[in-house]
Write a structure and sequence with these properties.
single chain; alpha+beta; 5-stranded antiparallel beta sheet; 49 strands
């Protein structure tokens, strides 16, 4: 490529400069040739220096015209060792105007002007030559500062021409200059110092506020001249000049957007033989918004940038790099890394905008050949399996060309989206990348340009203020009115791939942000007008550094003037807990900057930044949870116990939940918190000392003390979790038994610690008795150590089994046997002889420790059944089994390994040249592979087929015609050798020789598969393939060609397999999802598809069977895709609410009576009655005490007799389904009093429910007749919809999530166990029925919740509204003494019709209100709610 050639390449962003900036003067207007104009300008500018005047005169004289030839002046070559004088330079015209920037530094006195020379032939350089007319200034002269809002727009600038470029293409040189790496630079050269070297950038209409340039110290220059023109080949006008640039300085000149489209930078006073090396080049400024004087004709109609409006919905990103997908929308050096595979993709939520242009900047080697742009009105991935709206073919280099052509490949590409793609508005856009060389797709930046759509139909509104912000004002810039808001990171140094800034907001310390290797880390935070009192800065402990600096400024990107408020040079002593600093003593400005220095490993990682204060956007100073907090908690709070155990496990240090904050801590808690932290630190120190014992003298006092301390600390972890879990017990009886067992555990652990120390001391003494290691005794010493290494784990496992056996439920084996029988014989039905909790405990506490082999068989059977369920869309197993299948890590531990379902590494060769050879075997030289099988197939034809996604445009093949002709499965010693991770040995040709059973035809397919189930790696490192004939002789394979193969890693392509190079290999990995991920994604797609169908044809597009089956699938705990299912459900619920909002607006317009319904005092029940507690306390108070164990038969049999006598239908008179046995006292069985209370309430509910439903139907009929309306209505919906008694499973969920803070028994706080919905034709009928109910139950109405009386009340229920009446009700015919709270919902038919469609989505949305416990996380709540196990209650 020549210097004239324009490309689309964008350069990588420049790392943030920490130098104090230098600025230069600017000139607003171009020089004019007219003398009259000059006189006018002189009148306006009365004070003009001689230098200024001379520069202008010489500039005008030097301008090329048809009448005047270029002029030249002799000049003395500057001494490279002499620094230029600071006085204003006096440039003179150069000898050849063919070189640009014909002004150089001159002596103090101007030289006489020589005679004109003949005009040379015009060239590109001639046309571009232009004199400098601005006045040189120094940094000290210029007081103006860079705009604080300016961004790094270097990526948007395009180099289009250079003069003097040495070696390589200008795009590659520009990339090096922009990298800000010392030893990467753009080298320019002209031996004649009279000739400037230069480069030209196309701004593409973007506004440049500042230009920063730096030089490699060994090839420095002192002077730059900046000029501008409207056309690349036009007349350039000077706008900035610096002549005092010092070595090592990053010089900045301010342009303040006062430039035309093209900017030229000329470099003079090159100190080393005319050479200069630019290693810093950064443009700061603002992106073109579509208008402005700089836009060319092509730009005039350009849309404005809407990148900040677009959000990322999902990307094909590896799970460990999920946060990376957002990097492409940021304005820093962070990179989006997408999953390995034939193609990769990102889905964008474009909100209200139609996209007209997309600009994508790829990382080197990542430019794909194909980019597809697709549109959809729903978001999930499956919805984009349609023909692309637009395919783009990019100019790129594919694998066959290797590295040779990549320097010519543009990294930035503009995709113009045709208007016809938007046939009706589509909210979601997918960018799909296919046919790329790299093994991972990496994208530096994506920018979107477009406009707000005018095609959004009123009846298909997809936007709700709750989710997307207000439609009006969405384009308005964020205004800062000085009120507190969420603080945010606004700038930071570049991140390492996979270590994004978002990691710092995760609770666990092992997630952290890491800046790029070798760069200086900083983070700038906008405090959001919050009154910050303290700050905590905590690094990842491995990356030790010494100095932390915190400073403040009013401008986020100010290059200087930061006020240092904290400088801590002892951070290496604070790596565990971080540094915490009081900021109240400082006058904080708008921004703070955090910088780190003096790293021991040249790498920095931050795990936590917290800002403390009293505002709503700041963290409160949190306490460490202690055992006293747990002992004194007033209700069963699983989250509190989990927080404490998490502290023991070093997962997190503090608790942040509101419920924890409201607990009453005693004053001594602060002291206890300190001692707990100190103890934690001591344990950590002991472990560190234990690690160092290898450097200590065995059996020394120091060694003995360290070993003893380490053993005791290790054993403590076997019983330390018992106490907090004891306070989580349902009964005091169970708690006390657990605390007694803990004492036994402690005693056994002490005994084990002493035994381990004794045995290790004996081993060390035996070794010491052998004397110094010599050739004669080395084998004996090794044998002693080997014996110890084999004995220790056996002894430890034996003792662990004894210790944990204390907790083994004596019924565990019995329950486990019943569970196995059900799974193997009748998985659709589980015996109700045991509860769900008992089954779960039998699996997690017994089988996982004592019967793992049978557990794997059961889970394998469950996994197979679930696969069949998905394939056939039929429920072939009990929902509880689905619920258990993906609990915790059970699926990967017991059902299917991580490797299960992973596709093979596949290589296809063209073996035409071998068809006439008698190839009988094939072997491979393999350095390493985790595949356990090699299978070889052959065929006469290679059939192409479209990929699953027809728009990928990667060539895919269909192999059904391939015949297997050889297979080798590793076994025995070879398999063990291959799986030995501690001593990986290569596999020889003899080890891998596959004997063929058929002849080799035109094509050969080789599969490396059956991945090691004990490994999470699926790689292949193969150095050579060798073909043998029937005599064992090597068959030459020079004509064999690779057709397709898995993408190489690190450029180690499949062609290396066919070469004979000793140091080359084919290195690749299997690409794809394992079986668990495929199942999770299938469920996600099915659920999202079903939810989205709810808005099609008013719900008719999804059958009742499909709705039930989706709930069955949701029993599979799908944490990985929960957020996406929730997001889709919210959007669809927002769409379904549209007619409800319209109906509500109509009710408001007509001032309907339903809007003002409220509970009058004359109808209200006694205010002391708030729940079932007050109505039934007289009945349960004689036998109920909180957290009490009620034993069978002594405590429970009298209750059964009493309940039977009063007419309750006791279906389980022995409490068999909820009875428990303790571990330590297995002869006693009992039921927690809270479970008995729930059973009692539900027995009353079943007794009261028929009467309540009869009463409501009678009132409905009476009201219809009163209004003169038809009864029966003739419409199944216009009736009393009698809901079933709420299941215990749902009651338990409500208690766990909402009512756990209510008085015991908490089940009494559930007020809608008996319920019905009454659907009315209109507001008039509903208001009349409401009044009728008030009169009928006068004095017995607890509360009325009218969702129609406030417009905001519809938001929490997705627009659904009803009038809910809680009634103190009893069946007087049965027993007037027993009353409970029942609920009647009065609904308008228009709302009821939408509610039927909403049910599936609502069930998903309401799970969002879950907590953080093992049974209350939202995705678990969703699974529990969908399971509803019937008699198996959880």
């Amino acid at each position: 490529m020549g210097c004239n050639q324009s490309t689309q390449e964008q350069q990588p962003p420049v790392a943030k400069s920490k130098s104090v900036k230098d600025v230069a003067a600017t000139s607003d207007k171009p020089a004019e040739a007219s003398a009259g104009h000059e006189e006018k300008e002189k009148e306006k500018e009365p004070v003009v220096s001689a230098a200024e005047q001379q520069i202008a005169e010489i500039g005008d004289a030097a301008k090329p015209t048809t009448e005047t030839a270029p002029v030249s002046a002799p000049t003395t070559e500057p001494d490279p060792t002499t620094e230029p004088a600071p006085a204003d330079p006096q440039p003179v015209a150069t000898q050849a105007d063919a070189q640009p920037e014909a002004v150089v530094a001159a002596t103090a006195e101007p030289e006489p002007e020589p005679e004109p020379e003949p005009e040379p032939v015009a060239t590109q350089a001639d046309v571009m030559a232009e004199p400098i007319t601005s006045v040189a200034t120094t940094a000290e002269d210029e007081q103006e500062e860079e705009d604080e809002n300016a961004e790094d727009i270097s990526l948007l600038m395009k180099i289009v021409a250079t003069q003097g470029l040495q070696d390589g293409e200008m795009e590659d040189a520009a990339r090096k200059a922009a990298s800000s790496t010392e030893y990467e630079f753009m080298q320019l050269f002209d031996f004649d110092q009279n000739n400037d070297v230069w480069f030209v950038y196309d701004t593409a209409g973007h506004q440049v506020d500042s230009l920063t340039i730096g030089f490699y110290s060994a090839m420095h220059a002192t002077e730059i001249k900046v000029s501008t023109a409207t056309e690349q080949a036009g007349d350039y006008t000077a706008i900035a000049h610096r002549s005092d640039i010092k070595q090592g300085e990053k010089a900045t000149v301010l342009l303040k957007s006062k430039h035309e489209r093209f900017i030229k930078v000329a470099i003079a006073n090159r100190l080393v033989s005319g050479m200069v090396a630019v290693n810093v080049l950064k443009f700061g400024g603002f992106e073109n918004s579509g208008g402005g004087t700089q836009s060319t004709a092509a730009d005039a109609g350009a849309s404005k940038e809407v990148t900040d409006r677009v959000k990322i919905y999902q990307g094909s990103t590896p799970s460990f790099k999920e946060a990376d997908v957002y990097n492409c929308l940021k304005n820093n050096d962070d990179v989006t890394t997408l999953e390995r595979g034939l193609s990769s993709w990102i889905i964008f939520d474009c909100k209200r905008y139609e996209i007209e242009r997309v600009q994508i900047t790829f990382e080197p080697y990542c430019v794909p050949q194909i980019v597809n742009f697709k549109l959809s009105d729903v978001a999930p991935r499956y919805s984009f399996k349609i023909p692309a709206a637009k395919k783009f073919s990019l100019d790129t280099v594919y694998a066959a060309q290797g590295d040779a052509g990549w320097s010519k490949v543009s990294l930035t590409h503009d995709l113009e989206i045709p208007r016809e793609c938007y046939t009706g508005f589509k909210r979601y856009a997918l960018l799909q990348f296919g046919r790329y060389y790299a093994d991972e797709m990496k994208i530096r930046r994506i920018r979107f340009y477009g406009h707000k759509s005018t095609q959004i139909a009123d009846d298909d509104e997809q936007f709700q203020e709750r989710f997307d912000g207000a439609a009006d004002g969405a384009d308005d810039a964020k205004q800062d009115d000085g009120s507190p808001r969420q603080w945010e990171v606004v700038d930071h140094s570049a991140s390492m791939a996979g270590m994004p800034i978002a990691n710092m907001w995760k609770a666990e310390d092992h997630f952290f942000w890491m800046c790029q290797y070798g760069s200086q880390p900083f983070i700038t935070i906008d405090l959001g007008n919050n009154a910050v009192q303290k700050i905590l800065v905590k690094a990842y402990a491995t990356y030790v550094y010494k100095t932390l600096k915190i400073s403040t400024h009013d401008k986020a990107k100010a290059k200087g003037g930061w006020t240092v408020i904290v400088e801590d040079s002892a951070m290496d002593t604070k790596m565990t807990d971080g540094g915490e600093y009081d900021l109240t003593q400082f006058a904080l400005k708008k921004f703070i900057k955090i910088e780190m220095f003096d790293a021991q490993m040249s790498m920095y990682g931050l795990s936590t930044i917290k800002l403390y204060g009293d505002g709503p956007f700041l963290d409160k100073k949190e306490r460490v949870v202690t055992m006293d907090d747990i002992r004194t908690m007033k209700f069963k709070d699983q989250d509190l116990v989990q927080a404490y155990t998490a502290q023991l496990g070093k997962k997190e240090r503090v608790v942040t939940m509101d419920d924890i904050r409201t607990m009453k801590f005693k004053d001594q808690d602060l002291v206890q918190a300190y001692t707990a932290q100190l103890q934690k630190k001591q344990v950590a120190d002991i472990q560190q000392i234990a690690v160092k014992t290898s450097q200590m003298t065995a059996l020394s006092d120091e060694w003995m003390a360290a070993k003893k301390a380490w053993c005791e600390a290790e054993m403590r972890m076997l019983w330390a979790y018992t106490e907090p879990n004891a306070y989580l017990a349902d009964t005091i009886y169970e708690r006390d038994l657990m605390l007694q067992a803990m004492e036994k555990q402690k005693s056994m652990c002490d005994e084990l610690a002493a035994l381990k120390l004794e045995k290790e001391v004996a081993m060390e003494k035996a070794i010491a008795a052998c004397g110094p290691v010599t050739a004669s005794n080395a084998e004996k010493i090794g044998a002693i150590r080997t014996e110890w290494a084999e004995y220790l784990p056996k002894m430890t496992e034996e003792w662990h089994t004894k210790i944990f056996a204390i907790w083994r439920d004596p019924q565990g084996p019995l329950i486990w046997e019943e569970f196995k029988r059900c799974v193997q014989e009748n998985p659709r039905k589980l015996s109700s002889a045991f509860t769900a909790v008992e089954y779960e405990n039998a699996v997690t506490q017994y089988a996982t420790r004592f019967d793992k082999d049978e557990l794997r068989k059961c889970y394998a059977k469950m996994a197979d059944l679930f696969d069949e369920c998905i394939a056939e869309k039929t429920e072939k197993m009990h929902k509880f089994l689905v619920y258990l299948l993906n609990a915790a890590s059970n699926y990967l531990l017991y059902a299917r390994s991580w490797a299960h379902g992973m596709p093979p590494v596949t290589i296809v060769l063209d073996t035409t040249s071998l068809m006439d050879k008698a190839v009988k075997s094939i072997a491979f030289a393999i350095d390493q592979t985790y595949a356990n099988t090699i299978e070889i197939f052959t065929a006469d034809e290679l059939r192409e087929q479209k990929a699953d996604d027809e728009d990928v445009d990667d060539v895919a093949y269909e192999y059904s015609n391939f015949e297997s002709i050889g297979k080798l499965s590793f076994s025995g010693e070879l398999l063990a050798q291959k799986q030995d991770k501690s001593n990986v040995l290569p596999l020889s040709l003899d080890d891998t020789k596959v004997v063929l059973t058929g002849r080799v035809r035109q094509f050969l397919k080789i599969e490396f598969k059956d991945w090691d189930e004990k490994s999470n790696f699926f790689s292949l490192m193969a150095k050579q393939i060798v073909f043998y004939d029937d005599g064992g002789r090597v068959v030459p394979h020079g004509g064999v060609k690779a057709i397709t193969a898995n993408k190489p890693t690190g450029g180690q392509s499949v062609e290396n397999l066919l070469s004979t190079g000793e140091h080359s290999m084919y290195y690749t990995q299997a690409i794809g999802q394992n079986h668990q991920e495929m199942i999770e994604d299938t469920i996600r797609d099915e659920v999202c598809r079903g939810v989205n169908l709810l808005r099609k044809s008013r719900g008719a597009a999804i059958s009742k069977h499909d709705k039930h089956f989706l709930k069955f699938l949701l029993c599979f705990r799908n944490k990985r895709n929960y957020d996406e299912m929730l997001y889709s459900s919210k959007l669809v619920m927002g769409l379904l609410r549209q007619p409800l909002d319209v109906e509500y607006a109509r009710l408001q317009d007509t001032n309907a009576g339903i809007l003002s319904l409220k509970l009058d005092g004359e109808y209200r029940s006694d205010k002391s009655i708030q729940s079932n507690h007050q109505l039934l306390e007289w009945a349960y108070a004689p036998w109920y005490k909180p957290k009490t164990a009620m034993f069978w038969p002594d405590d429970l049999q009298p209750l059964v007799d009493e309940w039977t006598q009063i007419g309750l239908n006791v279906t389980d008179p022995t409490f068999a389904t909820i009875r428990r046995t303790s571990t330590i006292e297995p002869d006693k069985s009992y039921v927690p009093s809270d479970d008995v209370a729930m059973d009692f309430l539900n027995l009353i509910a079943y007794k009261v429910d028929p009467a309540f439903q009869r009463e409501m139907r009678a009132l409905f009929k009476q009201n219809r007749e009163k209004l003169g309306r038809t009864y029966p209505t003739g419409d199944r919906d216009l009736a009393v919809q009698s809901g079933p008694v709420k299941t215990k499973a749902r009651q338990k969920i409500k208690v766990d999530l909402k009512y756990f803070v209510k008085p015991a028994p908490q089940s009494m706080a559930v007020l809608d166990i008996v319920r019905c919905g009454i659907v009315c034709e209109d507001s008039e009928e509903l208001c009349s029925l409401y009044q009728l109910i008030m009169e009928r139950f006068k004095g017995n109405i607890l509360r009325v919740k009218n969702a129609f009386d406030d417009v905001k009340k519809g938001d929490d229920s997705h627009g659904y509204r009803a009038v809910m009446i809680n009634i103190n009700f009893g069946d007087d015919e049965w027993n007037p003494k027993y009353r409970m709270v029942c609920e009647a919902q009065l609904l308008l038919n228009s709302y009821y019709q939408v509610r039927k469609d909403m049910h599936l989505g609502y069930g998903i949305c309401r799970s969002e209100d879950g907590g953080k416990g093992n049974t209350t996380e939202p995705f678990i709540v969703l699974a529990r709610d969908c399971a509803k196990f019937g008699n198996l209650e959880i």
